[in-house]
Amino acid sequence: MTQNEQDAAIERFRSGETKFLVATSVAEEGMDIPDCNIVIRYNHVGNEITTVQTRGRSRKRGGTSLLLGVEEVLQREILNIGRSKMMDDAILQFRRMSLPKVKKQIKDHQEKIIQDEELKEEVSKGNQKNKINSHFQLLCFKCKELTINNEFIKTINKTHHVVTDPEFRSKLYLRSDQSPRNPFDGIQITGKIYCKECNNHLGVMFRYKGIMFPSIRMEGFQIVTSTGQPMMRKKWKDLPFMVKEMSHEDYLGMISSRRETRNPERRDNDVIVPTCQDNQFEEDMDET
Known about the structure:
Residues 1-98 form the Helicase C-terminal domain. InterPro entries: Helicase_C-like, P-loop_NTPase, RLR_C_sf, RLR_CTR, RLR_Helicase. This is RNA helicase. The chain is of the alpha+beta class. The protein folds into 2 domains: 3-84, Rossmann fold (3-Layer(aba) Sandwich), CATH 3.40.50.300; 136-287, Beta Complex (Metal Binding Protein, Guanine Nucleotide Exchange Factor, Chain A), CATH 2.170.150.30. It has 6 helices and 12 strands. It has a 4-stranded antiparallel sheet, with no helix packed on it. Helix 2 (48-55) links the parallel strand 1 and strand 2. Helix 2 crosses helix 3.
């Protein structure tokens, strides 16, 4: 709906012409309808902030907010209610503090964050020093037909492992998410990628800086060393070999190859994979 159509629908509700409104998650914020006396959510729950925002949609005195859902959804809502109460208590405690004490605690917290980040960086550097700068290959764990040479494996933000080989996409097919997730780290996931030969789940496809990247998960592959020795690792952090960060030249190369190669195949008989739950979404990204 356009903004004008939304405004017209809300006006019909206010005038009594329409008795109820049906809305997506847009109702969690940005909609102010004073005459609304009940909000019903069906199998939909976010975090503690969205719980408070949705409750605020019922502005009329004596208004009610109801949630209808399966047990898992209800348990998440109970957790959100507890967290929102903790937020209220924290705000109350914060308001009772003197300004000098507030400034001191903020400064102490900022210094702790900086120290933690510096320590994390030193640990990361130490781990990199222990890694071997040597050739290796990744083979699809199931069929062993799909291979990736290590020079085509790079990292983004030192976390997400992507493949820069333009031929790699022709060996995949993509199952798109029905509803896009909110971006994080500048990354927007668009779906999951699978080996075209054996349907092995290899990782996810995401957009970063306007470029589509296949991001692979360690568990989908077998490692083969330069001497032909096979090995298995569950997490990228356990890989004994060095993987370089994406450079400016790598990004330019991806842009150039994008013009020459097509996107991963979407098979006509594929069932679109429903958007995963938040916890599954985090697990997918941990794997890449």
